[in-house]
Amino acid sequence: MTVPPFAVVPGAQVQQALRGREKQIVELVEATYRLHGAGECVNPPSQFLRFPDRPSSRIIALPASIGGAGPVDGLKWISSFPQNVAAGIPRASAVLILNDHDTGYPFACVEASIISATRTAASAALAADRLSRGRRRPARIGFVGTGLIARYIHTFLSGTGWSFDTIGVHDVSADSAAGFSRYLKQSGAPGEIVVHDGPERLIRTSDLVVFATVASRPHITEPSWFAHQPLVLHVSLRDLAPEVVLASANIVDDVEHCLRAQTSLHLTEQRTGTRDFLTGTLADVMAGHLTLPTDRTVVFSPFGLGVLDLAVGKYVHDEVAGSGELHIVDDFFHELSRYG
What is the pTM for the complete model shown? Predict the structure, then answer.
């Protein structure tokens, strides 16, 4: 065995490797979900670093390992500092470390905020497709929360063949809602763009609802808003009150991950003392082991698995390496002789 060379992959190369590859990345995410569902991945609980003096901020470590034909290990280290937005910089920043399967040596440090947004959006697009089968395909979409994740989700939906008659937009920040609306118009998104001053009307007039907020506690409390049984992508995990959860069919990416860290599902478990409100996982749906009800709102709550970051990060690394533009840091591992 030999020590692999160590590379640094900056955000510009990450973006270039992923641009226009929405269909390929959704297929990669689907394959990774299937590996995870088959027990060929290791995905321990995420670890949260919190700060007494900055209670709204956190840095999260997501270790993971992917088996199968192209094994890789690694760690995503991602921060969320909501106060950054007021300063005009993104809320989240991240790096991804890829480790060699055989030696354990890190072989790449990859800018990962783009990777994190990409795998989140690809997971949402995959769920929108899989969970809408057997139902009328959504023609009206609504976004609650209009930051970078919402933009990426829209991009991945568009890149995988979705279009909508209307696009509803709501954000507690009028500037964010206006910015997202401008993005939609500039992207050439078909359909009428409607900005809502609150979430109720948006939810009631949408067949597909995307929650991509930074909410720390539930703020959507009325099950009656979902009486028309939309498909809900609950990407931000903490928007829906237990009353809404209990009135819905609930699909997750991983049960143990979603039922922790005060997510809406975790709060529902704490209130009821049971997990009977869970319908199953996305992998169950893809494998045909689960038939979704057609008489209830379907909510997909993805905690965001580290194995998805690994899969997308390894894809990026291999694409950049194949182009011959991989930036190797010579002599990064200096002490390689056991006795000097």
Answer: 0.94
